[in-house]
Predict the 3D structure of the following.
Amino acid sequence: MNNRYDFLYLFDCIDANPNGDPDAGNLPRLDPETGQGLATDVMLKRKIRNFVQTTKTDSNQHIFVQEKRPLNPLIAEACSESGLESYKKSDGSWDKDKAKKRPQTEIKTIQQWMCSRYFDIRSFGAVLSTGPNGGQIRGPVQISFSRSIDRIVTAEHTITRLTDVDKEEGEMGRKFTVPYGLYKAQGFVNPFLADQTGFSDDDLKLLFTALENAFQFDQSAARPAGSMNPRALIVFKHDSQLGNAPSHKLFELVTVAKKDGVEVPRAFSDYEVKIDREALPNGVEIIERL
């Protein structure tokens, strides 16, 4: 990869819960001081992983971090495929004392095998130091927390849920939604780390395609069809690996604000997105993918 990339991603939420907080009864996450909604980077990475896992079948596009799947056996598989000891005991556990002393040359071999197989490790990195021990990998793709442009409100709905399939009675429950929120996330692609993990230009295209379709195959009761939508993916492509401008300066060229006369936004059409192209530094190209 010969170029550095920064990108800005906008998505909105309509009568849904974009990212519930398990420490707060699954309420939508928010900044308590400003009232702005928040969504974690992990949430977006999960959508990317799910899209790639659902739509891609190539041998180098497997997903390492999947829901409800233990990771140590996958690290052990990398050891086996690389001809290295996984330090597995007869009872099925791993000898952690021996694994911790694994030589760096072996760890590098394991990491190379894992990067060649798993798209999410090439992209986001991984902690492989558990069990058989494959060390840690820093990924070239970093995504920030998403923050809503304006403050959000949380709507609370009473629902009835069936708790005993042998009885007709149910119990009352709660469901939380955000009537509307437009969220903004920022991303960065480090070409130097991309060289280390093998993250390629084809992987970059897949990453952006996944963001463009992040919610297309992710519908659920908390996020029904049409309730979560990508609205903009603005990519800043530098003509060098080092880059031609600081990331924050590029992000400041994009302004997102409510249109005149709109007090309570309820649709993306209530906002206006502007890009100050005249202030774009030399050596940086803007690519609007959405």
